[in-house]
Amino acid sequence: MLKEAIFHRPKNNFAYAYDKDTLHIMLQSKKDDLTSVQLIFGDPYDWKDDSWQTLTKPMVKSGSTSLYDYWTIAVEPEFHRMRYGFELSDGNEILYYMEGGFFSSAPTDIANYFCFPFVNNIDVFSAPEWVKDTVWYQIFPERFGNGDPSINPEGTLPWGSADPTPANFFGGDFQGVMDHLDHLVELGISGIYFTPIFKAYSNHKYDTIDYMEIDPQFGDKETFRRLVQECHKRGIRIMLDAVFNHSGFYFPAFQDVLEKQEDSKYKDWFHLWDFPVVTEPKPNYDAFGFVSSMPKLNTENPEVKEYLLNVARYWVEEFDIDGWRLDVANEVDHAFWREFRKVVKGVKPDAYILGEIWHDSMPWLQGDQFDAVMNYPFTNGAIDFFAKESISAEAFTDSIVKVLHMYPKNVNEVAFNLLDSHDTPRILTLANGNRDRVKLLYLFQLSFIGAPCIYYGDEIGMAGGQDPGCRACMEWDKSKQDRDLFQYVQTLLKWRKTEPVFGNHADIRFIHADSEKGYIVYDKFNAEKRLRFIVNNSNKALEISNEDLGNVTVQEWNIQHDTKKELTLDSTIKVDALGFRIFEF
């Protein structure tokens, strides 16, 4: 038994309250080292005849990577508190793993056991329930639809008449979004994530001038209010982008600093290194990256904090938006985000708070800051395997199993699972123009745990490289749209909505990953139903052994016709090149 690989910590993703009655416990061990793990647990105050009263229950191996096995269990301690340890077996040796170390027999002193002191309801991670059944659609407002040419900014180009650049404008606006809401309803979208809409200099609007005003190229506040209302009528939620890490160059407070230097009353609003403040050739102040036009805001400053928290409150209170996406969230102090959450949830308890963080985000996901983060570890694994073919099937399943065990389950259920965005090349470009690979990406994304997001235009086959190439005008000429891809995504979204086991009301487990042949097998399952997915990521048709299922009768799901057909499985299962089969048990 390799003791060095055995790990548990009574916190974060290893021990947490899933709800007010249920604790989830996880143990990590070396892959294929242990044959069984049992949880020994009991109430620390439950004694009889000087003997601590405990229960023992088997844990389940919920996933494996090439290095580790993960063992999990859900338990409901009667009095919401628990001491616990693990009985480990490798088939030859039995050991007991506790906070006090390893023991050859279960220790009698409960001080050796791990402790979950008490499930306080206020500490239970609680994200909005509606997010679990939401499919997001990201809109870059300048490029989705020009519905009101009368408010076009100076120099606006005819729609789609040129390639996107960092500086050109095509006149996208709120009316253009309202004009095309039927497209989103037809597709099956239930949430819109808008990149910034506030007054700014650029076409991307991440350089805010006024956080309390709509950019005039998009419309006015009444138009925005009408947009939110029209979306809500259709069951579509609205999430706005908050750029609180930095302001724009023309933000009045920063302009005051440039003009008055040390005499500016706003000098403490920013992280200034010395005076005079200069922007070229490099800024002598903290900025987003080294971009001098995006000076970093000092969110520890009480005036800055009050201003930004008023912004957060105002747009929820006045316009009934449903969530905030927080730009460069990991560079803002945790204390600010804790206050931000209290303000937003105080106005709308079921508002969704989403942080833009590209790495392990557990410090932000403990119930006091964000509901979710943009799940880039998921994105990277899916893109590298299905689109780029740059990793093996085993490396892909390793990455996704790691994602599934990186956070608590109630966090994973509301994770923002994207494939691309305004910050990355589009998936069709990443897949080198191969639409079948894009279809496999969508199949995996839309059958995965969490809240998926589709980047505008991907569903009709738009391509585009790194920013600004990924920010082209939406193609509204149906003769130029990939309607087959649209209908494919539409069917997947219908299944996600009508089949809980396909969507976000089931667990997922990888059954097999064949790196030599390039296919994966995974199950989605809940108490009522199980689905088996066999996905061929290779360019060759395959015959895959059916040893574990045997000669059973199943329902096969057909996405092309949106049907189910009964059949009895053979000893091998044929899967087309870059194809898949879905069987229901």
Average residue pLDDT: 97
SS elements, strand count: 30
Shape: globular
Radius of gyration: 26 Å
Low-confidence stretches: none
Task: Give the gist of this structure.
The chain is α+β, with helices and mostly antiparallel strands and 585 residues long.
Q: If you had to describe this structure to a student in words, what would you say it looks like?
A:
With 585 residues, this protein is an alpha+beta fold. Among the domains are: 3-123, Immunoglobulin-like; 247-298, Oligo-1,6-glucosidase, domain 2; 507-584, Immunoglobulin-like, CATH 2.60.40.1180. 22% of the residues lie in helices and 25% in strands. It has twelve helices and 30 strands. It has an eight-stranded parallel β-sheet. Strands 3, 6, 9, 10, 11 and 12 form a six-stranded antiparallel β-sheet that branches. Strands 23-24-25-30-27-28 form a six-stranded antiparallel β-sheet. Helix 7 packs antiparallel against helix 8 and helix 11 (435-446) runs parallel beside helix 12 (483-498). The radius of gyration is 26 Å and the shape is globular.
SSE arrangement:
Blueprint: E1 15-17, E2 23-30, E3 36-42, E4 47-48, E5 51-52, E6 55-58, E7 60-64, E8 68-75, E9 82-89, E10 94-98, E11 101-103, E12 114-116, E13 136-139, H1 174-178, H2 181-187, E14 191-194, E15 198-200, E16 208-214, H3 221-233, E17 237-242, H4 252-260, H5 302-319, E18 323-326, H6 334-347, E19 352-355, E20 372-373, H7 376-387, H8 393-406, H9 409-412, E21 416-418, H10 427-430, H11 435-446, E22 451-455, H12 483-498, E23 507-514, E24 519-525, E25 530-536, E26 542-545, E27 553-558, E28 563-568, E29 572-575, E30 580-584
Parallel strand pairs: 13-14, 13-22, 14-17, 17-18, 18-19, 19-20, 21-22
Antiparallel strand pairs: 1-2, 2-8, 3-6, 3-9, 4-5, 7-8, 9-10, 9-12, 10-11, 15-16, 23-24, 24-25, 25-30, 26-29, 27-28, 27-30
Helix pairs in contact: 5-6, 7-8, 7-11, 11-12
